[in-house]
Amino acid sequence: MSATSSSSFDLLASGGRGKSSRTLLRVVILLFIAGAAIASRLFSVIRFESIIHEFDPWFNFRATKYLVSHGFYNFWDWFDDRTWHPLGRVTGGTLYPGLMVTSGVIYHALRALTIPVDIRNICVLLAPACSGLTAFATYLLTNEMTTNASAGLLAAAFMGIAPGYISRSVAGSYDNEAISIFLLVLTFYLWIKALKLGSMLWGALCALSYGYMVASWGGYAFITCLLPLHAFVLVCMGRYSTRLYVSYTSWYVLGTLASMQIPFVGFLPVKTSEHMPALGIFGFLQLLAFLDYVRSALPSGRQFQIFLWSIAGSVFLIGLLGLVVITSAGIIAPWGGRFYSLWDTAYAKIHIPIIASVSEHQPTAWPAFFFDLNMLIWLFPAGVYLCFQELADEHVFIVVYAVLGTYFAGVMVRLMLTLTPIVCVAAAMAVSQMLNNYLSLKSPKPEDHAVVEGADVTATKKKGGLKSTNKPVVGIYSLLSKGVVVTSMTIYLLLFVLHCTWVTSNAYSSPSVVLASRMPDGSQHIIDDYREAYQWLRQNTKDDAKIMSWWDYGYQIGGMADRPTLVDNNTWNNTHIATVGKAMSSREEVSYPIMRQHEVDYVLIVFGGLLGYSGDDINKFLWMVRIAEGIWPDEIRERDYFTPRGEYRVDAEASQTMKDSLMYKMSYYNYNALFPPGQAQDRVRGAKLPEVGPTLNTLEEAFTSENWIIRIYKVKDLDNFDRDHASAAAFDRGHKKKRGGKKRGPRVLRVE
Amino acid sequence: MAPKRHNARDITPSAAATTQAGPTTAGTVPATAAVTKPYRVSVTTKDSWAQVVGNVWSHYLKTTPQRTKLIDVFMAFLIVVGALQFLYCVLAGNYPFNAFLSGFSATVGQFVLTASLRMQTTEANKSDFPSVSPERAFADYVVCSLILHFFCVNFIN
């Protein structure tokens, strides 16, 4: 809706209004765009409720609550003993505090204004609020690229409703990305501004924005690599200027210092390879500045100049070589695993299963591009082409960003997010260029130009840039072609809005904590098993009862049930996760000592078999096996969990190891009781289960939620009579005849 | 006497500008001579090098205003301080790494900011900075330095 309004704005604006009314219109349109951006993110609140979504946001929410109640300094020094039991986690030093501090500041500001707002609502609505700001920042960034004001408005509108960005910023998605994308775009805008003006102040602002970005999201490394790359490309194109020196060095020095203030980042900027390009370019620019000065001092000496340039090259090479040496000597940490997986998509799968196991780290499937960006994805190359036509410094930035962003988005689904801003900017430039050419009602006078030129109307559009400068003015003559193009563009824009709204409401607005399904009559049915189970934990277990679950649910248990967990989504300790994986995938006799050692009181699993909920633990089970296998290759073997024919089955034909594993037993324990004999069925895997269900000796069922999505088991204490659990459980089940027959001894006691 | 001293100092910043790149990226020995000397030796035409240095020298003397020379002295001072800190780090170890980093980056940061100020106020670069007057450049410089030192003090522990 707003997209089309801004295109029709061209018509209004070209109607000869004054400058002030244009500004007014622009402000009004931007406000509308921000409104649309916020409104379309509220689907989740309307469909469900004001609730924190998914996994990571629950941790952020918990941390924010801690910040608000304990104050900033306690938050900074927060050692959390309720996660990663028994290790604990230095939470204050291992998180990106930007998000929490932002909402804490908003909370206190509102309190100071005597507007008491619940911290939860601030957290829920922070992402939509930031999306409005992102739209504005995109407007500013686009305006730096082109003189055409409507391009900026279009870009803002695209950015506001593009699903690629909405996917991470719906209301309730209280994640780092919520504010980081705004900061990303803002940093780029400030960088372009600094580069254009060659101003230290803008460079410092860029550094501050960068520092804020570092405080908020690990994705800051994208900026850290993109800006040096841009500078490097400019230098390679022979476009070194004092403006580049001023803006880059002031950004780098202040930005790096700012980033080092965050405890989690600390010394990384001088110690890890990801940050070395920025440092290298910084040194290179010093050299260039010096050479530039020398060159200006020697107006005639061409041979010196060439010689000096060769010095520049050799020093650069020596620097690179030194970097390699230092890296191999181990002074600078080599590239992290996530970065390797950016270059070799198979790397993580082989070496670091824990990274590969996260679905958002998978390579992107191509329909995802269309799904997330719709028509922008085919306008994007056109916009980049337009940048090539002008190719000032800032257009080089667009080109570099486009290439890098496209690559990264193709490697990791999650990085679609960093591609979206540039796609919006480039597409907006293409659309506005097209509309500008086709929307103007007055056609050029044919008699002014060569007649031949006017004949091929369709070809005129293609001739922009350099060619158009040495040819007479060309334009679109026939109203028909104007009408066709403008109409089709309008239809595309409308379809885009429809698509975005549809995607947002259907795909990206589910909190995933609360599930929705349709009843046969079409009404909505809410499945609230997660909260039911977490509430049960909160009310029925001791305050320090340790809950073991797969790491996916760690943050939720910490946030909603407020109970200590063994592992959570922070995944900083692979061995600990592998321990949990081993406990889940081994026989009871093996798992029980592990659980005792870790003081586990309850085990929580997710089971979707009854409801057909596919994201359950049996489907994730192979990752647990793989991660455990990484640490104990001789105890856990992935192959054992498959049938001899290599199938992953859960029915009667499942392998014995599979049937003996704790996860299998916990999932299907007592499941038979729900069905008539022999009819038990797993609806996710479409498997018919064996008639006799598994038995559990060391655990007892404590709670099963309404739709059986969450099952909680209590770990039994040691037996009072010092029996092992298997025989104790067998005794309880009534298999006591054999034993009883042998141990008639106690009768003697009775006699006495 | 006085201008000569300036000249002697001017060589250090310009030569040390290369060392700025040298030790940080390559981690080579921080002595300025070590970087420049091998090139001098490798060049067959030693005369041309002397010529180059002489030309730069005279150019510097001729064209640099007094104020800019003051800036250059400050930059030379920063380089000496930075080199001393780096030397200390190499010789005595980097134990309070926070302190070393903030001290060293304070000098490096101040150096590049001063260099930026010098560029923006130089007449020859006027066309590069249409929107930056010398007064504006100095105000920017002050603001940036304040930010820089705020971060350094905060980081020093």
Automatic annotation (TrEMBL), chain A:
Q: In which pathway does it act?
A: Protein modification; protein glycosylation
Keywords attached to this Swiss-Prot or TrEMBL record, sorted alphabetically, are: Endoplasmic reticulum, Glycoprotein, Glycosyltransferase, Magnesium, Manganese, Membrane, Metal-binding, Transferase, Transmembrane, Transmembrane helix
Q: Which reaction does it catalyse?
A: a di-trans,poly-cis-dolichyl diphosphooligosaccharide + L-asparaginyl-[protein] = N(4)-(oligosaccharide-(1->4)-N-acetyl-beta-D-glucosaminyl-(1->4)-N-acetyl-beta-D-glucosaminyl)-L-asparaginyl-[protein] + a di-trans,poly-cis-dolichyl diphosphate + H(+)
Q: Where in the cell is it found?
A: Endoplasmic reticulum membrane
Its GO CC terms? oligosaccharyltransferase complex
List every stretch annotated Disordered: 732-752
Q: Any idea of its EC number?
A: 2.4.99.18
InterPro entries per UniProt: Oligo_trans_STT3, STT3-PglB_core, STT3_N
Q: Start and end of every Oligosaccharyl transferase STT3 N-terminal domain?
A: 25-426
GO terms for MF: dolichyl-diphosphooligosaccharide-protein glycotransferase activity; metal ion binding
Note the superkingdom of the native organism: Eukaryota
Q: Transmembrane segments in this chain: where?
A: 24-46, 94-110, 122-141, 147-166, 178-205, 217-237, 249-270, 276-294, 306-333, 368-388, 395-413, 473-498
Q: Which cofactor does it need?
A: Mn(2+); Mg(2+)
The UniProt regions of compositional bias labelled Basic residues, in chain numbering, are 734-752
Q: Top-level EC class, please?
A: transferase
Relate the protein's function as given in its record.
Answer: Catalytic subunit of the oligosaccharyl transferase (OST) complex that catalyzes the initial transfer of a defined glycan (Glc(3)Man(9)GlcNAc(2) in eukaryotes) from the lipid carrier dolichol-pyrophosphate to an asparagine residue within an Asn-X-Ser/Thr consensus motif in nascent polypeptide chains, the first step in protein N-glycosylation. N-glycosylation occurs cotranslationally and the complex associates with the Sec61 complex at the channel-forming translocon complex that mediates protein translocation across the endoplasmic reticulum (ER).
Q: What is this protein called?
A: Dolichyl-diphosphooligosaccharide--protein glycosyltransferase subunit STT3
* Native species: Coniochaeta ligniaria NRRL 30616
Automatic annotation (TrEMBL), chain B:
Q: Where is this region: Disordered?
A: 1-28
Q: Where in the cell is it found?
A: Endoplasmic reticulum membrane
Look up the domain of life of the source. Eukaryota
In its UniProt record, which GO terms are filed under biological process?
protein N-linked glycosylation
Q: Does the keyword Cell inner membrane apply?
A: no
Q: How does it sit in the membrane?
A: Multi-pass membrane protein
InterPro entries according to UniProt: DAD/Ost2
Task: State where composition is biased (Low complexity).
Answer: 12-28
Q: Which UniProt key words apply to this protein?
A: Endoplasmic reticulum, Membrane, Transmembrane, Transmembrane helix
**One Pfam family of this protein, by short name?**
DAD
Q: Which GO terms describe its cellular component?
A: oligosaccharyltransferase complex
TM spans, by residue?
Answer: 70-93, 138-156
- Pathway linked to the protein: Protein modification; protein glycosylation
Subunit field text: Component of the oligosaccharyltransferase (OST) complex.
Q: What does this protein do?
A: Subunit of the oligosaccharyl transferase (OST) complex that catalyzes the initial transfer of a defined glycan (Glc(3)Man(9)GlcNAc(2) in eukaryotes) from the lipid carrier dolichol-pyrophosphate to an asparagine residue within an Asn-X-Ser/Thr consensus motif in nascent polypeptide chains, the first step in protein N-glycosylation. N-glycosylation occurs cotranslationally and the complex associates with the Sec61 complex at the channel-forming translocon complex that mediates protein translocation across the endoplasmic reticulum (ER). All subunits are required for a maximal enzyme activity.
- Which family does the record claim for this protein? Belongs to the DAD/OST2 family.
Protein name, entry field: Dolichyl-diphosphooligosaccharide--protein glycosyltransferase subunit OST2
